[in-house]
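Supplementary Text 2. Reproducibility record for the structural model of the 453-residue chain.

All settings were left at their defaults, and a single model was retained for analysis rather than an ensemble. We include the record here because the model underlies the residue-level annotations in Supplementary Table 4.
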Amino acid sequence: MKPESMFLAAPKRWKIWRRDVLMKDMTIRRNRVDWPILVAITVAAFFGLTSLPGRSISASNPRPAEITTQNVAPRRDFTVVAEMLEKFIAREMAEKDLPAVSIALVDDQQIVWANGFGFADPTAKTPATAETVYRVGSVSKLFTDIAVMQLVEQGKLDINAPVTRYLPTFHPKNNFDKPITLRQLMSHRSGLVREPPVGNYFDPTGPTLAKTIASLNDTKLVYAPETHVKYSNAGVATVGYVLEKTQGEPFAKYLKRSVLDPMGLDHSSFEPTPEITKSLAKAYMWTIDGRTFPAPTFELGISPAGSMYTTVKDMGRFMSVLFAGGRGSKGQLLTQSTLDEMWKPQYAKPGAKTGFGIGFGISEMDGHRKIGHGGAIYGFAIKRFARRQTRCRRSDHKGRRKCRDGPHRRSCAESHARRARRQVDSRARENIAGSARPGKAARWPLYEWSKGL
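Retained model, structure tokens:
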């Protein structure tokens, strides 16, 4: 049975938080994984127009035919699913004043629907498409961790060795007996502070990764390593710096060469190149009292933890790599056994089914394992996860399953879409209640994804 998966961004509301509050903790078939349908929604900005794409397109903007080539019409057996999701997206955009949403639906190795809604640039009336570029925040961590696991498979890194083996000058104050390891950092079990003093989420100066990591020597561990989950952007930034130092290449260029390009993610990058920024959606933010302003665009010093740019089509290709057991368009990137290790809760009690794996968050949905990660960065938010598909019980009079083709397949797909929509709807109402208009208090903390999935 093929897998079902979800890649999803729920709308966020932003507040202006006091810096000291947020920073208070600074001192086989083909060896294919059994998971199939991926829904990817990327929310680009949180204030502005509620118009849908294809309307009021000026002559200077892409012609409808060109837009069509950037999107993917729904495959016949997913038409009803796409219609359901379009209605849901339209409602969410209207309620939350979202300028742009892009979505891709992937069935195993095929993108079966991809579309954009609203405007990537509300001023120029540039429609959002499936090839609109978005910043994806902490989803970046998955790619940093995959790069490390590639080197582990090659015998070039040991994730259980002290990080000082690779970064001799890395010395945050550690009053505990355990040294910090790469495994701990990638599973948020190192006890390291959330943000570094330099290069943190609020630092607009764009320091180098080296200066960002060096500033951690002025911090001390919050917990003993391996004893508590302590979500840490600083931790994954350190992981990225290990890649930079050991491979002798700037982090962004190494990730592009070793991970993004081999996966076929041609419109993805950890740096804002001209090719990337020309398709980047315009993002906006607002304060609790209703003032609006363009979202900041500065690069984070913690780049490996949150500075990736990508499209929903590229994210669909990424999911297909996972579905194929680590095989990308240019060959095998990771083995299935490595992915299995990344999808296993780390430092967990025997029998535990939830927690952080290596990079991926592990949880349950409808009694099945769910893997994923969310992300947010100024003006953008995204959520992605994968869930094993429930086996179809529909059969003919001879007991043969009839879900592979025809109306029964569509019925099963519709059922899964309704279940996913209910989950998104309930999370949105739970976390964003009372925040549909500027000026109302938001209930989502700035780092919602610190709670996991």
